[in-house]
């Protein structure tokens, strides 16, 4: 039997199923890899926002990670919600000893504006976590948190990319979804520069886009794609998922991780 590539997500749980660990595992299944998880936090979360969050102890995170990596192994790792400096440093230490590409989604706030990263953890993200990243995938709010740069146009995206690369990731994907016009992202390693553009879909149900994109990139890397190819493939998948996003509850619904299953002939 063929064994699918294995991808490990290190992230928080979204009880509403649209983001976090749940979105990561759905994305991995949709893209043909075997998803595994290290839970870092539990959230009470729905379409209206985050009502509560409880961080797991560092020893629980370390034990989950070692359990999976030492027995099953991984072809890529994706990180998401790491809410404290202690967790960031624990995960960065684990990543340093893992021979696999790493996608770091430096989650700072939820889709609804709820803070998911303590201000005291920002320095650890800059100095410990980002240097371990093969690809870092900040959105514009996270860029502002990490660098102080407020991005308003594509020139600002270049400046933001240079600033984030200064923290040590090999590649950075600046997500420009909050800018007007087409949905544009910038991928660069400081030399190669790729602009990825997609038509913006008029759909407010976009919960989980960041988690989904990062997991899709990690899935591509696990399958042996180059970073640019993995990001292009991930962008295509997420664009379709956003177009197919659907309403849940009274607020912002999720993207549709299974959109290809429902649109296949």
Automatic annotation (TrEMBL):
A matching Pfam family: Phos_pyr_kin
Pathway: Cofactor biosynthesis; thiamine diphosphate biosynthesis; 4-amino-2-methyl-5-diphosphomethylpyrimidine from 5-amino-1-(5-phospho-D-ribosyl)imidazole: step 3/3
SUPFAM superfamilies in UniProt: Ribokinase-like (SSF53613)
Keywords: Kinase, Thiamine biosynthesis, Transferase
UniProt KW Kinase keyword: yes
Function: Catalyzes the phosphorylation of hydroxymethylpyrimidine phosphate (HMP-P) to HMP-PP, and of HMP to HMP-P.
Name of the featured protein: Bifunctional hydroxymethylpyrimidine kinase/phosphomethylpyrimidine kinase
Gene that this sequence comes from: thiD
């Amino acid at each position: 039997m063929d064994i699918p590539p294995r991808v490990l997500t290190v992230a928080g749980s979204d009880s509403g199923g649209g983001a976090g660990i749940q979105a990561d595992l759905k994305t991995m299944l949709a893209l043909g890899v075997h998803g595994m998880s290290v839970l870092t936090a539990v959230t009470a979360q729905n379409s209206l926002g985050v009502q509560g969050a409880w961080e797991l102890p560092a020893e629980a995170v370390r034990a989950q990670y070692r359990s999976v990596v030492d027995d099953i192994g991984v072809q890529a790792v994706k990180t998401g919600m790491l809410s404290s400096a202690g967790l960031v440093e624990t995960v960065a230490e684990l990543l340093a000893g893992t021979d696999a590409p790493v996608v770091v989604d430096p989650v700072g706030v939820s889709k609804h504006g709820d803070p998911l990263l303590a201000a005291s953890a920002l320095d650890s993200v800059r100095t410990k976590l980002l240097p371990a990243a093969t690809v870092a995938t900040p959105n514009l709010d996270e860029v502002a948190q990490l660098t102080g740069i407020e991005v308003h146009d594509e020139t600002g995206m270049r400046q933001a990319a240079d600033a984030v690369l200064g923290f040590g990731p090999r590649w950075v994907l600046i997500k420009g979804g909050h800018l007007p016009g087409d949905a544009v992202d910038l991928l660069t390693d400081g030399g190669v520069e790729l602009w990825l553009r997609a038509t913006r879909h008029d759909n407010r149900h976009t919960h989980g886009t960041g988690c989904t994109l990062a997991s899709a990139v990690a899935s591509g890397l696990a399958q042996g794609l180059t970073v640019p190819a993995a990001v292009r493939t991930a962008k295509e998948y997420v664009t379709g998922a956003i177009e197919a996003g659907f309403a849940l509850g009274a607020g912002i619904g999720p993207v549709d991780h299974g959109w290809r299953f429902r649109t296949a002939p």
